Every structure is written in C-alpha cells, then in structure tokens.
Amino acid sequence: MENEISVVDAKERSRYEAVDTDGHLMGFVDYKLHPGVISFLHAETLPEFRGRGVAGRIASKSLDDARALGLRVKPACPFYQDYLQQHTEYADLVRRPGEEAAK
User: Fold this and answer.
1) Tens of pLDDT along 64-87?
2) CATH code, 77
3) Looking at the domain assignment, is residue 101 inside a domain?
4) Are residues 25 and 61 in contact, defined by beta-carbon separation less than 8 angstroms?
5) Helices (H) and strands (E) in the chain, counts
6) What is the rounded (10 degree) CA torsion for 54, 10, 40, 63?
7) pTM of the full predicted structure?
8) pLDDT, tens digit, for every residue of 52-70?
C-alpha cells in the first residue's frame, strides 16, 4: 500500500498536498490564486518519498484542476516550469509573458 498516493487541494493552506494511505504528508506545492490565474510557487517532495512520482502526481492533479476551473497557470516554481515543458498537453494553460490577469 505504500505506493498509494492521494493528492488534495488543502485550500486553507493554499497548497496541494500528496498523502499516503496513512495520511502522512509526502509532498506539496504552494500556490497563490489571482483572478483567473493560479501561480505555483514552490514544490517539494519530502526526502523519504522522493523517487516515487509524488511531485508528478501533484503537478498533474493541480494542472487538471486549473483546467477544470478555467484558470491560467503561472509556473513560478522551477519544477513546474520543467514539468510543463515535458508535458505539452498542459501548454494551453500557461500564462504567456505580457498576458495580464483580470483585475
């Protein structure tokens, strides 16, 4: 069961969290919501859970949610910048340079 990963939007902490079946925190990404845009600020996988695909699961869940909510994505975090370059299926979500968010 150690391979089971659940990703939840912990809105009260403005972050997505990955937890195992026992509820142990495996990793997270902090975000900031702006009108029409979500900025992913910092992603981290706890050392004991690295190499298990935790960060990728967090990224795909958070990006799928952004799409479902009609949000543009600002990848301020280096991990998200790399992830988005490798996963072009999310390219339409990325906020382009000079594109203004609705105020």
Assistant:
1) 999 999 999 999 999 999 999 999
2) 3.40.630.30
3) no
4) no
5) 2, 5
6) 70
7) 0.89
8) 999 999 999 999 999 999 9
